[in-house]
């Protein structure tokens, strides 16, 4: 990249890049502000400057929508479509799609799904978006996951209260799903909007 950065901008970019590689998802503005020990508006200013200079992309209305732009990308398979309460519709010939390296790590398997529906709109995941999923069979409370239930596959927030598991949409017009059984097939780590 050609545009030079101030020492503080380099520090913020380094934090975002290392956080993304370590955690498998990008930091929130609040996490950036906590790292800097500064206010949210200050963190927002740094992110906007890095975006303006071409070092980050930012997806509006998405909590974890700050993505560092790295040289090069990696390819993962686009396996099909996922919608609220409907099965994953596999593609006959999965095509590879390019994603920023910051969305993946060497210690995992990744795949992409195209979203159909509006069950996650308040999380900034819209109909037609492509979500990047890290294949894993476990989830923590609050993770956004691909889950298989008796009703099919869905992308929702995994919730566990006491011994009760439920799947929470991010659309105020939809109710949580309380499945009899649930299988986790992956964790949301990134979003691509074309």
TrEMBL record:
Ranges where the Peptidase S24/S26A/S26B/S26C domain occurs: 77-189
Source superkingdom: Bacteria
GO annotation terms (biological process): DNA repair; DNA replication; negative regulation of DNA-templated transcription; proteolysis; SOS response
Transmembrane regions: none
Location of the LexA repressor DNA-binding domain: 4-65
Pfam families with a match to the protein in the record: LexA_DNA_bind (PF01726), Peptidase_S24 (PF00717)
InterPro entries from the UniProt entry: LexA (IPR006200), LexA-like (IPR039418), LexA/Signal_pep-like_sf (IPR036286), LexA_DNA-bd_dom (IPR006199), LexA_repressor (IPR050077), Peptidase_S24_LexA (IPR006197), Peptidase_S24_S26A/B/C (IPR015927), WH-like_DNA-bd_sf (IPR036388)
UniProtKB keywords: Autocatalytic cleavage, DNA damage, DNA repair, DNA replication, DNA-binding, Hydrolase, Repressor, SOS response, Transcription, Transcription regulation
Entry keyword Repressor: yes
GO MF term set: DNA binding; serine-type endopeptidase activity
UniProt cross-references to NCBIfam families, sorted A to Z: lexA
Similarity remark: Belongs to the peptidase S24 family.
Descriptive protein name: LexA repressor
Organism: candidate division CPR1 bacterium GW2011_GWC1_49_13
């Amino acid at each position: 990249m050609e545009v030079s950065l101030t020492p503080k901008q380099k520090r913020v970019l380094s934090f975002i890049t290392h956080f993304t590689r370590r955690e498998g998802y990008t930091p929130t503005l609040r996490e950036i502000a906590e790292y800097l020990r500064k206010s949210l508006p200050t963190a927002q200013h740094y992110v906007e400057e890095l975006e303006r200079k071409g070092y980050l992309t930012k997806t509006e209305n998405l909590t974890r929508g700050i993505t560092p732009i790295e040289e090069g990308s990696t390819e993962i398979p686009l396996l099909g479509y996922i919608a609220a309460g409907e099965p994953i519709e596999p593609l006959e010939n999965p095509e590879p799609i390019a994603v920023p390296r910051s969305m993946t790590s060497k210690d995992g398997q990744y795949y992409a799904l195209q979203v159909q529906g509006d069950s996650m709109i308040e999380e900034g995941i819209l109909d037609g978006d492509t979500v990047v999923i890290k294949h894993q069979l476990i989830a923590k409370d609050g993770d956004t996951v691909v889950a298989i239930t008796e009703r099919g596959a869905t992308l929702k927030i995994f919730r566990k209260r006491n011994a009760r598991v439920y799947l929470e949409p991010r659309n105020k017009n939809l109710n949580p799903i309380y499945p009899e059984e649930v299988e986790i097939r992956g964790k949301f780590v990134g979003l691509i909007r074309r």
